[in-house]
Amino acid sequence: MNTTLKIKKIGNSAGVILPKELLARLRVGPGDKVHVTESPDGLRITAHDPDFAAKMEVANKIMRDDRDILRVLAQ
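-> structure tokens emitted (75 positions)
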């Protein structure tokens, strides 16, 4: 999908309007957040929060490694 968006003045800032097709592909709507990350080939807009994903990886590792301790604490 190739889409060209025009930058528009919004108050004292600038922004782009995302067409409904893009919103549907991102699975976001008004009020949702998107995340912009830099990649080797440019910028990437996603609904996926990379910081949250990294924190969940750490949490999953702790839960795997310390499951016996966590089971005792849960009782």
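The first strand starts at residue 8 and ends at 10.
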